[in-house]
Design brief:
The complex is a heterodimer. By secondary structure, chain A is of the alpha/beta class. Chain A contains eleven helices and 13 strands. In chain A, about 30% of the residues lie in helices and about 30% in strands. Chain A has a six-stranded mixed beta sheet, with helices on both faces. A four-stranded antiparallel beta sheet of chain A has the order 11-12-10-13. Chain A has a three-stranded antiparallel beta sheet with strand order 2-1-4, with helices on one face. By secondary structure, chain B is an all-alpha fold. In chain B, helix 3 packs antiparallel against helix 6, helix 7 crosses helix 8 and helix 7 runs parallel beside helix 11. Chain B has one domain. At the A-B interface, helix 3 of A face helix 1 and helix 5 of B.
């Protein structure tokens, strides 16, 4: 989890590069060939949190599996920190947490983390030192000697995060990390991702929890039907071009007609009116508010929620796939 | 190699905590304790009959434990995604498969050791002799169970537990049925290429004689390495090509 000098200096190597990924499961005796991923390209800068979104069957998990060598791609180029992650040596600096991780039920948490740490080349002493800190970090302090068959769903999820970080990876891939966690656990995971980013670690997050993605991701890639439906910075995707969101107070009897004729999506929250106007009409609206004796609280570029954006995008593509 | 040993070590520790292991060993101990109560076949052969039955009990114990552990280990870990946690580290699929085989084979070896020790204690009480020759038989059984486990692990790389068990039992049958399937030795030209496990069949010399020589024991090791190498090699090739 240390930021290497080349990372800070910028050697041009991206954390994750996927170019033209394609996966077609060949047809069987009674099955037609199935294209899980048609053409996906993703580029993730170092030290950022990148979200991977999409409805069920969009190809998120298959893309991640191809990236990590769990599924053989039909086509495509995959690079993690400039190395081919399908080779064991190319995965040395990667941590991965699968969705709903499970572990050998008869091992303890410490034994499990020891195995994963040793497999990544850490010596016994380093693993021991690292485990105590990690268990505390994910909220499992005091559970190290407990057999995993007695762990709850949330505890296994926390252990999954710990095993991802055991060897201080430079790139972390998380598939639904907050699944099965209570609200406090979900907040902890969000904070952990932000901490990792501040330490220079690149995080790739696949999640259905759009609020989580919106709050931590710098960029997102939205997949739909095995293709990239949208890609970019969260702000750029969510800002509604040409509209400004306005908040005003002081109109107990209702918005004055001079303001109302420009306002769209009008809502009243307490004594505050919220509406949006076209950028070109903002000057006129502000003047009208002043003339009517109102108080302007805020005027910011209108931004839709990721949920709305996602729903619009998917609806435009023919609705959710099964 | 380091990954293979590490994975083997943890498969061994995980297996040690499974209740099934102790239940099978308990049944084996009860059966071994009941052997002296079998009808006597004549003066002087009670010891040989005891050794024969004892080796059968050890063989069945090894087979049950080996198959129970091997049949669902890889399919279960792939299905529950436990395998992902290992395979996304800098570990090759071959190392994962070989480590799994190593852990199970060592565990079966430990179970055979315990079982043989129990049988020896019973022999010492019942016949006033420790029957050290039983360890030769136990060694042969362990080697054969290692081969069967390799076959099971190889098949489990691409198939579910039912197929693994059927394939393993078929492997044992084929391995010991050269005479039945091909007639007398040499009757069919292909018999020299027949995948026979008969090298490990030393019940007769152990039960009714004084055991086998060092050369035979060494040749068993060669056969063991050959079979295990072929089975695990095939299993690794299949597993490398599989989408998880």
């Amino acid at each position: 989890m240390t930021s290497s000098p080349d990372m800070q200096n910028g050697d041009g190597i991206r954390a994750i590069e996927v170019e033209g990924a394609r996966k077609v499961y060949p047809k069987g005796p009674f099955l037609a060939a199935k294209t899980a991923v048609a053409d996906v390209s993703i580029s993730v800068e170092r030290g950022t949190v990148h979200g991977l979104l999409g409805p069920n069957g969009a190809g998120k998990t298959t893309t991640l599996k191809m990236l990590l060598g769990l599924v053989r791609p039909t086509a495509g180029v995959f690079r993690v920190l400039g190395e081919d992650p399908r080779r064991p040596s190319g995965r040395r600096r990667v941590g991965f947490m699968p969705e709903q991780p499970y572990f050998a039920p008869h091992l303890t948490a410490t034994q499990t983390l020891t195995l994963y740490g040793r497999l990544l080349g850490l010596d016994r002493r380093s693993v021991r030192d690292r485990i105590s800190g990690l268990l505390g970090m994910v909220g499992l302090e005091g559970c190290g000697r407990q057999e995993l068959s007695t762990f709850s769903r949330g505890m296994l999820q926390r252990l999954g995060i710990a095993q991802t970080l055991i060897a201080s990876p430079d790139v972390v891939v998380l598939d639904e990390p907050a699944s099965g966690l209570d609200p406090i656990g979900q907040r902890d995971v969000r904070n952990l991702m932000l901490d990792l980013r501040s330490q220079g670690v690149t995080v790739m997050l696949s999640s259905h929890q759009l609020s989580e993605v919106e709050s931590v991701c710098d960029r997102v890639t939205i997949l739909c039907g095995g293709l990239v439906a949208a890609e970019g910075r969260i702000d750029a995707l969510l800002n509604v071009a040409g509209r400004t969101s306005v908040r005003v107070r002081g109109f107990a009897a209702g918005l004055p007609p001079a303001v109302k004729r420009f306002a769209g999506d009008v809502a009243l929250a307490g004594s505050t009116w919220v509406f949006d106007v076209a950028d070109a009409e903002l000057r006129a609206v502000v003047d009208a508010i002043d003339d009517a004796g109102g108080s302007l609280e805020a005027a910011v570029p209108k931004r839709s929620s990721l949920e709305d954006y996602f729903a619009r995008l998917i609806a435009g593509d023919g609705g959710e796939r099964s | 190699m380091r990954s293979v040993v590490l994975i083997g070590q943890f498969v061994f520790v995980d297996g040690l905590r499974r209740r099934m292991l102790y239940v099978v060993l308990l049944f084996a101990a009860i059966m071994a304790a009941l052997i002296p109560s079998l009808p006597s076949y004549g003066l002087g052969v009670e010891g040989a009959v005891f050794r024969e039955f004892a080796l059968a009990v050890i063989y069945v114990t090894a087979l049950v434990i080996g198959l129970a552990l091997a049949a669902n280990r890889v399919p279960g870990e792939v299905e529950r995604r436990t395998a992902y946690n290992v395979l996304v580290k800098s570990v090759s699929r071959s190392a994962y498969l070989c480590g799994t085989w190593l852990g199970i084979t060592l565990l079966v070896g430990a179970a055979i050791g315990v079982c043989t020790a129990i049988v020896q204690v019973i022999a010492a009480f019942s016949f006033s002799e420790p029957m050290w020759v039983l360890w030769q038989g136990a060694f042969a059984i362990w080697l054969e169970s290692g081969v069967v486990t390799a076959l099971a692990v190889a098949v489990s790389a691409v198939a579910g537990p039912v197929v693994v068990v059927v394939a393993s039992l078929a492997g044992i049958f084929i391995g010991h049925a050269r005479g039945t399937l091909l007639g007398e030795e040499g009757a069919v030209a292909a018999s020299r290429f027949y995948p026979s496990l008969d090298s490990f069949a030393i019940i007769n010399p152990v039960a009714h004689g004084t055991g086998v020589g060092v050369l035979h024991l060494a040749s068993m090791l060669v056969v063991f390495i050959g079979f295990v190498g072929v089975f695990l090699g095939a299993g690794c090739l299949l597993f490398e090509r599989r989408d998880l």
